[in-house]
Amino acid sequence: MSRSSLPDDPTAEVTDLLQTLIRNACVNDGREASGQEARSADALASYLEGAGLDLQGFEPRPGRRSLLARIEGSDPTAPTLLLMGHTDVVPVNLEGWSRDPFAGDLDDGMVWGRGAIDMLNLTASMAVAFRHLADSGFTPRGTLAYLAVADEESLGTWGADWLTGHELDHVRADYVVTESGGFQMPTPGGIRLPVMVEEKGTYWTKITVHGTPGHGSSPYGTDNALVTAAEVVRRIASYRPPARLSDVWLRFVAGMELPAELRDPAGVEGMLELLPTGLARMLYSATHTTFAPTIAHGGTKTNVIPDRVELEVDVRTLPGEEGDVARRMLLDAVGDLADRIDLESNDDPPTSSPVDTPLWDSLARTTAKLCEGSALVPMIMVGGTDNRFFRRTGSVGYGFGLFSRRLDLADYSTMFHGNDERVDVESLRLSTELWTALAHDLLA
């Protein structure tokens, strides 16, 4: 891969690297052998090598490789900043895409492909900034690290979870920045840039629905587990727990100068029907524990009444509503069918970081220069990121980048795990310049 001859304008270089990562198609479907992130770890190592960097690979399972690079600081008491991006992407449904999701097409200033938003854009821009800092002879007081991590899209088992559990001395950091945030959101007082300081937990649940087998030719009065499962899915999909407004949400509403109704649970419910789909989804997910039935398996043969169906539900919990609270909500949703089911859940609680930190202050200073008239606002991340593993080791973890106004928040929110993912090259440039400026401001 060629490197840009214009180090003061990284646009072409980061675009090229992003296209490479998209084309590597490190699709993670949750199976241990999927992902094969070694392809992108190798590409990134090839890009970073030659600058005197300390590069380390970690591969707990064949092909599931993460890459760590470091620029050591001169002062062991100074903080460490870790820029972390994942290299795996979620599967695609080709029928929903208007172009090849793994071609990495560049068209009208947009790079198209799976991972363009989630989050290969930031993974690439972090690498380019890191390489340019190393080439420039950057000698910080605090250590700067870059981690291209595997398996973020399936609980981090072979990525951040494994690294913090087995190689913490190598990856430990005072401050961590990963996805997402940094979208330019207009307000009456100027542009606001959300920083993901808190994220919801996961309470992924397998529901086993029981019935009684019988012959498909005689369905009347049968105890059909599939029919029961269909009703269980309908009830969970329509379940609406009350809104719950966290301190982070209230600070976001105040910082964005949003309507006062959004500081009241009843007002939140009333606003949902008035907003475009993308914004309504964000509003609902930021203020509710959510329940999404996503997988169903059942039946053995067309002429056999099924006696067992397995459902999987993606539950995302607000702080204070994880664990037993989420379980009670599920049982409340199912209602009088609760005695027909068994629940098996994985509780991964919410995490958060404080706002009054040197990292927040440094991001505020650097973004004010790169995006004139802007200010930061704290926000809750409605999905999960690898930040949760690092927060639990004591790190301050934020989700951030810096994006242009070519795509708005609604566009971004519908592209995460959606169709026709794409990012503009101006956003790639801005994020690359952000990481460079942040390293100088926080560590030098």
Going by CATH, the architecture of the largest domain would be: 3-Layer(aba) Sandwich
Give the end-to-end Cα distance, rounded to a whole number of Å: 30 Å
* Beta-strand residue percentage: 15-25%
Question: Rough shape?
Answer: globular
Oligomer: single chain
| Spatial extent as radius of gyration | 23 Å
Overall pLDDT: 94
Structural class: alpha+beta
- How many helices? 14
Describe the main β-sheet briefly. Answer: 6 strands, mixed
Q: Which CATH first-tier class of the largest domain would you pick? A: Alpha Beta
Q: What fold name goes in the CATH topology slot of the largest domain?
A: Aminopeptidase
Structure in words:
With 444 residues, this protein is α+β, with helices and mostly antiparallel strands. It has two domains: 11-188 and 351-443, 3-Layer(aba) Sandwich (Aminopeptidase); 200-348, Alpha-Beta Plaits. The chain is built from 14 helices and 19 strands. It has helices at residues 11-23, 38-48, 120-135, 160-166, 168-171, 225-238, 247-256, 265-272, 277-287, 324-334, 358-370, 387-391, 409-415, 425-443; strands at residues 54-58, 66-71, 81-86, 106-107, 110-112, 144-149, 175-178, 185-187, 190-199, 201-210, 214-215, 290-298, 304-305, 308-317, 341-348, 351-352, 375-381, 396-399, 422-424. The strands form five sheets. It has a six-stranded mixed β-sheet. Strands 8, 9, 16 and 17 form a four-stranded mixed β-sheet that branches. Helix 3 (120-135) crosses helix 14. It is globular. The relative contact order is 0.18. The model is unreliable at 1-6 (pLDDT under 50).
